[in-house]
Design a protein that fits this description.
Elements (H helix, E strand, L loop, with lengths): L1 E10 L3 H17 L4 E6 L11 H4 L6 E10 L2 H13 L1 H4 L12 E6 L7
Antiparallel strand pairs: 1-3, 1-4, 2-3
Length: about 120
Amino acid sequence: MHIDGFLIPVPEDKKQAYLDLAQWFDEEMMKLGAIEIVEAWESDIKDGQHTDFRRAVAAEPGEKIVFSWIIWPDKPTAEAAHKAIMEDERMKDMASVPFDGRRMVFGSFTDIVNLRA
């Protein structure tokens, strides 16, 4: 299993625009082999003493944090999907996104514990 994780600062008034983008992006990733995708909108984020979700993305006033992940069967499938989505004409034609992508945090992970009900 391979997991891509994201922290994204999104202006609260651009929530619907983010959801519209996420709907398209996530549907394409599912077509490209993703097993599960979760987009979670901030509901209760505490300020930490040293670091926290807001500091991680240099959140500005009026921004909410999106915590998102994509589960893939393996890393090659994820890499191929990311390559394909970046080559998609709709992605290339995208003039802007409803968040500051420079402050998005992204990383890939391999599971070391996986419990399910």
